[in-house]
Amino acid sequence: MGASQLLAPFLLTWVCIHTFLFLLQRFLNRPNLPTGPGNGPDYELLPTSTASAVSVGNVSPINSLSKSIVSSSSNSALLVKPFHVRFSTTGLNSFFFRLGNAPSLTRFWRIWYGMGIVFAMLAMVAGWVLLMYAAIKLILLATSFLWTIWSVESPSSFTVRASEPDPGKYHSDTGATSGGLSYHLRKRDFNDGSGSLSDAPSQSSAAVSNSGENGMVFVPVIPGLTLPLSHLPYYLIALLVSGIVHEAGHAVAAAREKTQVSSAGIFLYILYPGAFVDISSRALAIMSPLQQLRVICAGVWHNAVLFVIAWIFLSSGALQLSFRLIGWKQMDDGLSVVDIAPESPLYNVLKPGSVITRVDDTLLKGNPLDVWSDVLLPSQASPSLHSQPSKLVSGFCVPNTLLFVKPSDCCLFAPDMQFGHSKDRSLSCFTPIDPLHPPNPISSQGTNDRVLAKNGQCLPSFEILADPNRARCTPQEPTCGEGSSCYRPFVAYEPISIIRLYLIAQSSVGASTSTGITESVSGLSGLVPAEQIVLYQGDPKDIWETVQVTAMRSRWLFLPLWLPNAILLTIQYTMSFSLALSVLNIVPARHLDGHHALKAFVALAYSLWQTYRFSQSMRSTIAECSTDSGHAAAIGLSNSSTTGLPKGSKIVKGIVASTTVLLGWVMIGSLIQMAATIL
């Protein structure tokens, strides 16, 4: 999906939001809604506490006047600007205060937010180490990339490449003609992410694996590129939930320290939803360092607890048990199709509710979601059956009467003709299995070479691959019965392959014939009525992205198929954001909670050191007083031990500045690396 196609739904969404708010204002007969208490939060990269909640300073007279006017007339306010909506209310103030000061919870909150301080300090160190690791890895990758470019441009590199011709490939200087079987290919577009991933655990593991392959520690989240557009609602909900939990931690901790919350609310800025609490900066300034740490560290502590709760909920099977009690059942021998992206060639073939039981020769059993991802994403799991011809476990016994019948133009490939030059849609290229001469590696998509499959035959792919009764053969035993030969499909360019999907489809899919086999107009095929075999020629990853599947199936028709997967995705994204907030938001960088936590921690350490020095001086005073000497000197020592602010503020500023630069380098470097990987 291109940028223009992404812009249209974005603008339409905001037009609907502004239209709804305009009609709501007219309905309530309030043409000018108040702008709310204060100037609102400073919008940051992560949904942290507001600037006023963590900064020390005086509130301006204009801001104070706005607060007093709004508080006397209304306890809620709505701010509407282009691509920016913010709702704030004072209705939750008393709730936060009662919760933070409940007599029965006094001891609990003290221990609870004390644990939050310990966690935040550990997370600060872990986050900083993680940033350093990511930065070093980016530097090493950049160095390796520059070295590779220098090596390729050197004359010796060209000599080595020229001395290693690739046998089995047909090289030609003539240009490839247009046309052919391009309709078979669903060309990958890196801006196209509208399809759905199969499941949240699989996508999480895939993202980690993919980032590991590319050397990326942090993967930027860009809708339509690294995030499927169909996941955007779950993504935004998870981001909002993580932000609300984060800000609730600040609010309750502040209330526990007898600091009133001025207002709380939520906002939507472009595509970034979040929450905020407005806490008096004066009240924070007069707190002790320990009290400040309780308030500042409460947000990341709540996010960490939310992550642990969600992880336990998923890993313990409580979510699956809840689905079963409501009316869904767990599938152990297949996956149910939830939705198919409209741009996919499978859109008119697969139907929601169909059950996919096998991919090629791999049964979807045990943990079908993991098997589904392993088969369709071979580069991120164990080698799959369909990655290239040499990895195919078995071939097909083809009658000799089908050989040397059709022209072999479908076995001549070019980068712009990746399915061969044949105009017959039903034909695909097959090559014989020869255990003594394994097939050559597939060419990459970036090559400009034309490829001619050695001893290739153009055979009817549907008749051979979709026949469940056809005899099979292997490289170890390539012999077939009399009058047959062992052949398997050949594809010239990665990651294109021919994939067989076995599914139990709805009765509306396909129509029975005398042979029980049906072929669709798009080149996809089916076997009805009991089982359907769908042939897909293209990138396996496109199936993984555009076909949304789930291991849950509803017992009753009125239960939506998409609901379990939607809940699972939302929980998975919530875990991801909560973990990111609990670690990255506490690093000592500007505009993050870690900046203020570091200052409070240094002030606390300095205060403890001063207290220790004072206690030492008092002991010395008592000792000297016991001998009736040195009283005046002891008093002078006692007074000199209680100085004001710590003298390590320059060190704190240096740490914050260096961490901010480090964080910026990692973010920019990750974006550049992702762009380089795509290009």
From TrEMBL:
InterPro entries cross-referenced by the UniProt entry: MBTPS2 (IPR001193), PDZ_sf (IPR036034), Peptidase_M50 (IPR008915)
A Gene Ontology molecular function term of the record: metalloendopeptidase activity
Keyword Transmembrane assigned: yes
Keyword terms of this UniProt record: Membrane, Transmembrane, Transmembrane helix
Location of the protein in the cell: Endomembrane system
Superkingdom: Eukaryota
Signal sequence annotation: none
Entry keyword Transmembrane helix: yes
Residue stretches spanning the membrane: 6-24, 117-150, 234-254, 266-287, 293-314, 562-584, 655-676
GO cellular component term of the entry, any: cytoplasm
GO BP annotation list: membrane protein intracellular domain proteolysis; regulation of response to endoplasmic reticulum stress
One Pfam family named in its UniProt record: Peptidase_M50
Domain Peptidase M50: 234-603
Topology relative to the membrane: Multi-pass membrane protein
Assigned protein family: Belongs to the peptidase M50A family.
Record-given protein name: Endopeptidase S2P
Species, as recorded: Lobosporangium transversale
Organismal lineage: Eukaryota, Fungi, Fungi incertae sedis, Mucoromycota, Mortierellomycotina
